[in-house]
Amino acid sequence: MNFPLTELRGIADLLGDTLGAPLGGEAQRGLSHGDLVDALGVVEQLGRITDAARLALAGEVGRRADSEFDDRITAQYGCGSAQELVERATRVSAATARARLRDAKAITSRVTLTGQTRPAPLDRARAALASGRLSADALTTIVDALRPLLGRCTVDEIGAAEGELVAAAVGDAGEPACGIHELKVMATTWALYLDPDGTLPDEEYAQRVRAIRISRRAYRGLRRISGEVTDDVAAQFDRLMDAHLNPRVQDSGPRFVDCEADARAGEAAERVLDPRTADQKRHDAFASILSVAAGAAATPTLGGAAPTLIVTTTVEDLADPDGVAFAESAGGPVPVPASFARHVGCHGTIHRLTLTGTGAIKALVVEDRVFNHWQRKAIGARDGGCIIPGCTVPAAWCEVHHVVDWAKGGPTSVDNGVLLCWHHHHGIETSGWEIRMIDGMPHVRPPAWIDPRRQWRGPNRLLLRELRRARSA
Questions:
Q1: Which domain range does residue 384 map to?
Q2: CB of 430 within 8 A of CB of 292?
Q3: Which pTM was predicted?
């Protein structure tokens, strides 16, 4: 059978005229609910047939790029690999080209040296994909589970698993077609059953390739973290994230309010929403974890002291809202806003180093402004956690903030310290929140976008009420 290249060009033009202009004009808004759902199915069917053709052609490119061909297609087109050729011909990303070639290899037949055609390793999946019944996502799920078993299990065993998975994915098992999540569970189960030793986690491999990498070059104040962590490390990190990003911060469910403050204000306490995205919350939780870990007793010391972040700036920059400081990093000094230096200095020891004009050390003054262990415990018992309304970060994850800045004469005392989470502490100068102390208790005033009247809010008296209830019991 000849490949219908000319006909396909005509179909592509027809589809462009049929779908391109109406969809570009947002004609889909005129569809009824039923027609919209039907259109989803019809267009998805077209996409599946297209996906099948994409993979079939990519598989042939991969076959012709093999070394068994004297006139390899990659050499003819000046490409170093089949992936590069697919990238250049289709203008897709390297990841997409790589994924297509990987999946295509499992559904591409081979011709032996004697001229015999060998069926594709997963021929049932190939047929279901070509018919438009199997989606590319379902194929990837099946390939990811069964490809590692090729050569480790018999052809009959692979065929049995493939048949069951394809039937479940397209709805041939007497039940409606399953979703990708269910298919993934089934595929994993089959892989465990056929080859438990090869499917279970490979501890030796995991230990060998584990890695964390942080880019040395920053882009607009951001550095990329990448790598691979073992399952147990990932699970522990997930638990820390869960503990920090407590679901209590969601907008639904029961919550405690300060009834006394409500009575004074004459209205119910407002719910303060957190504008951060989930990714931003995870970043801030990660920052809190690092901050807590740096001060933990079990953390190894550097030069006899706890790991200390060195931030360098001038007196003028420290006082300037737009000032600049420099933080020491593995790649050398990194410019940071002076507000970061003030944030770090709020809960750390300051070493003021004065240099002469020639660079020699003129003076070194150590000024300790750190709240001690007992002060922190007392402040934590009073505040319970971050004092910003709507924030539920517990005391153990918070930092102690000087209400009146230490550099402006504020003392390092419980009457001048409040708990703030890393996120609110980091942005306290720019977020619009204000804090003051009245009779040893913190009061906060939200920014105008939260409360146009900018009323001061009293402290959280939940702990005080509980203590009174305990005494009267």
A1: 230-249+257-296+368-473
A2: no
A3: 0.44
